[in-house]
Amino acid sequence: QVRLVESGGGLVQAGDSLRLSCASSRRASSSYIMGWFRQAPGKEREFVAAIRWSGGSTVYADSVKGRFTISRDNTKNTVYLQMSSLKPEDTASYYCATTGVGYYSDRTARGPQNYDYWGQGTQVTVSS
Questions:
Q1: Which residue from 24, 70, 95, 113 has the least number of CB within 10 angstroms?
Q2: What are the residues whose beta carbons fall under 8 Å from the beta carbon of 60, sequence distance 6 or more?
Q3: Do residues 95 and 117 lie in contact, with contact meaning Cβ atoms separated by under 8 Å?
Q4: CB neighbour list of residue 109: distance below 8 Å, 6 or more residues apart
Q5: In contact, 109 and 50? CB cutoff 8 Å
Q6: Pick from 104, 128, 85, 1: nearest CA to 47
Q7: Are 12 and 18 in contact (CB under 8 A)?
Q8: In this structure, are residues 117 and 98 in contact, taking their beta carbons and an 8 Å threshold?
Q9: How would you classify residue 90: left for phi > 0, otherwise alpha for psi between -120 and 50, otherwise beta?
Q10: Residue 55 confidence class, pLDDT cut points 50, 70, 90
Q11: Collapsing DSSP states into helix, strand and coil, what is residue 101?
């Protein structure tokens, strides 16, 4: 069982920046993916970004590419989502998730059904 705890959400204005953190209880250094998803009221959960823990390669949704950056700190078992140039349409609950050990393609990394463990979510609200 892997426990994920998100933090860093809040209320900001359009154009502001915000950094989300996700602390993982996982201690293995194997190959797996850490991802961020978001869900707005009345909408399906959508992929935001993912990072391969081994190697650090990243995948982004087109809607956030160039504005959001995902990174990891191996020593702290923590993944971050740096969000810049925030827009009102970025308003959502943001969830951290992780897969089981294995190799995952970029396409697979985008699918929430491929993630085994989820955090409780943190709310991000962007006012116009």
A1: 113
A2: 48, 49, 68, 70
A3: no
A4: 33, 35, 47, 50, 52, 59, 99
A5: yes
A6: 104
A7: yes
A8: yes
A9: alpha
A10: confident
A11: coil
What's the rounded Cα separation, in Å, for the pair 123 and 42? 15
Q: Residues 6 or more apart from 8 whose CB is under 8 A from it?
A: 18, 19, 20, 21, 122
Per-residue pLDDT tens over the stretch 62-118: 999 999 999 999 889 999 999 999 999 999 999 999 998 888 999 999 999 999 999
Torsional sign, CA 25, 73, 12, 98: negative
Whether 19 contacts 81, CB under 8 Å: yes
Contact 99, 60 (CB under 8 A): no
